Amino acid sequence: MPIVTRPIRYAHGGIIFEAFATWDDAAPGPRPLVLVAGTFMGRSRFEEGKARSLAELGYVGVAIDVYGVDHWPADADQARARMATLDADRAELKARLRVALDAALAADAPVDRAKVAAIGFCFGGKCVLDLARSGAGLAGVVSFHGLYDAPPFPNEAISAKILALHGWEDPLAPPDAVLGLASEMTEAGADWQLHAYGHTVHAFTNPAREGMYSPAADARSWQAMRNFLNEIFA
Predict the structure, then answer these.
(1) What is the pTM of this model?
(2) % of the chain at pLDDT higher than 90
(3) Distance from C-alpha of 189 to C-alpha of 153, rounded to nearest angstrom
């Protein structure tokens, strides 16, 4: 299985961004595109690994960049500052996400443009929910231990199906925030579902997060994502 990787460079607002694209070069024909939005650390080896795993499942995986190559954080403190800047300007975050989607669709990769989804982890979970809120033409989005606060402006019509994969004891998304997301998606008329994992906290998919990683929730959530992608791309 020859998994190939390619950088995707593009500009927005005077900033250069670089996404990481990967797919199985031996498989014939176009296949669905799945964007991967990263944690507060941005596009890292973790997200690139998830993109590769998607390539092995038969998709084109693209780990996107929301900070820009000259603004990639060197440590967690820088990453929190970068994330806070975008949290404070959700319109700019939305613009960067839409540009990343357009760049992935325009790249030289074997993409079926009619079949597009996005997954995200932590801050990236918020990002993919914001892509859905923006009215982007996605079949679906999957938020892994995401952040659920809605942007301070009205949503566009949400056509993407929504899957939220949540650690019930996540201190960054307490029960009130979960209920807020459920109410928001219901009022928007979205097709949404939520899987909550008991005795599970934030970052449950990341083996590097000692005390937070849950092998069981990691495996269950990845399988739930696979089932969801199979459904929306059928």
Answers:
(1) 0.97
(2) 100
(3) 17
